[in-house]
Amino acid sequence: MSEYNEDAYRQARKDYIPTPCPFERALLSLCVGCSRARKLNLAEREAIGCGDAAVQPHCRALYQALHDNARFALKVQQGMAWPFGKEIRAQCGGLRGLAAVMGGDGGYVDDAAGVVLAALDRHGEIAALPYPEIMRGVVHYQPRQRRR
């Protein structure tokens, strides 16, 4: 069995996905959806890019703001790598919490980019979002359990 060349994979990924989706893990785990997501199979792996380069910076800013605000709630120390489960809670719970703030039920989000754009229309900028309310979604989100 041959070993995968991770450096070659990362380079191919950069070449094929010019605008990566910051919420790729949430989309791949199927806890949210997005109308602008573009799925790609690369080296027997699934990857997701953003099909709208104008929206991607807003999603990236929200992704960073969710991480900054969720550090305390999820007990992740500054400079520490995010474990997969906490990353999923930040992404899925954050998007669901944002959808709830925007008047949704806090369940499955059909269009992550649509929710981000609606939040920008209402609040003006990512920094002005009501993060204490959004963090409720992060804290209460439970990733699906592994099958045994």
Radius of gyration: 16 Å
Estimate the strand proportion. Answer: 5-15%
Query: Mean pLDDT, nearest integer?
Result: 90
Largest sheet: 2 strands, antiparallel
Integer tally of domains: 2
**SSE topology string:** HHEEHHHH
Number of helices: 6
Can you describe what's shown?
The protein is mostly helical and 148 residues long. It has two domains: 6-50, no CATH class; 56-140, no CATH class. Helices cover 51% and strands 8% of the residues. The protein has six helices and two strands. The chain has helices spanning 6-16, 24-28, 56-74, 84-101, 112-123, 131-140, and strands at 37-42, 45-50. A two-stranded antiparallel ribbon has the order 1-2. The radius of gyration is 16 Å and the shape is globular. The model has no long low-confidence stretch (mean pLDDT 90).
Overview features:
globular, mainly alpha, 148 residues, single chain, two-stranded antiparallel sheet
In brief:
The protein has 148 residues and is mainly α. The protein is 51% helix and 8% strand.
Q: Which secondary structure elements does this structure contain, and how are they paired or packed?
A:
Blueprint: H1 6-16, H2 24-28, E1 37-42, E2 45-50, H3 56-74, H4 84-101, H5 112-123, H6 131-140
Helix pairs in contact: 3-4, 3-5, 3-6, 4-6
